[in-house]
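= Tokenised fold =
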Amino acid sequence: MADTDRAEIVKAVNAAADNLASAISRLDAEEVTNLFSKSDGTKYISDGAFIPRDDLRETFRGFYGALKEMDFTFEKKEVSVLSQDIAVLTSWAHYTAVTKEGQDIDERAIFTSVYKRANGTWSIFQSHKSFIK
């Protein structure tokens, strides 16, 4: 693969991750769900819990519905290009949030997300989140 192709993939996956962080910060469960692949086998793994694509929307709605606001960012992003249509993003995530009851949350996690390109669009095929304690 040419260096220019690899650089374009890295740029596109970083942009997809930034779109995800923005949707999470807006507490937009619908948009976050739409950033995941529609392929069979797509799932989100959060602290050892497997959440299949069919359950993502309700999972995100439940989590975001308990929040009043959130600021979510990916830090230290690193993209590994595996092929023209598969890349892996590894990053630290930091988010602060306020629940509807007024409780402050400040957490960090490590995300590893496999991105898959279909019809020219990069989406998350599988994502794994582990909290940093």
Summary: The CA atoms of residues 36 and 124 lie 4 Å apart.
